């Protein structure tokens, strides 16, 4: 049997396994300030496929949210999903990506354009605004990256 599925597995089950949830969070301590991203990719059943964190330099909170989204979209594309459900706690980014809000901030326009191009390259992408509590792992990863960067900076000065 070709296709890589489990023998006896129906098309609906195979597609359900290929629906991925992308949770991203960008954090900035100060606005602007040191910033970082947290990214979590999950299967539809909630099991974690991948996660990561990265410092981003000095950015505003909204710039950090977009950078996290871009990192997440690049990462999720590697898994060739049938659909992607993007969950963020940034209402601004969700509404801009859904076309409900215009991107007025000049600094966000190139980030929006990059994220939009990545979305167009993926099948069936939807955006959902979630409370921070439902985005806790991505938030924790972003904050861990910031904490690690601050600790390294302190150690370098010591």
Spell out the blueprint of helices and strands.
Layout lengths: L10 H7 L1 E10 L4 E11 L4 E12 L1 H17 L5 E6 L2 H7 L11 H12 L4 E5 L6 H22 L1
Parallel strand pairs: 1-4, 4-5
Antiparallel strand pairs: 1-2, 2-3
Q: Span from first to last CA?
A: 61 Å
Q: Return the average pLDDT rounded to an integer.
A: 91
By CATH, the topology is: Nucleotidyltransferase, domain 5
Q: Beta-sheet strand percentage?
A: 25-35%
- Going across the biggest sheet, name each strand in turn: 3-2-1-4-5
Radius of gyration: 17 Å
**Shape by Cα distribution:** globular
What's the helical proportion of residues? 40-55%
Structural class based on helices, strands and sheet pairing: alpha/beta
| Poorly predicted tracts of residues | 1-11
CATH superfamily: Ribonuclease H-like superfamily/Ribonuclease H
> What series of H and E elements makes up the topology?
HEEEHEHHEH
CATH class reads: Alpha Beta
Taken together, the total number of domains comes to 1
**Tally of helical runs:** 5
Mind telling me which CATH architecture this is?
Answer: 2-Layer Sandwich
Number of strands: 5
| Major sheet details | 5 strands, mixed
The oligomeric state is: single chain
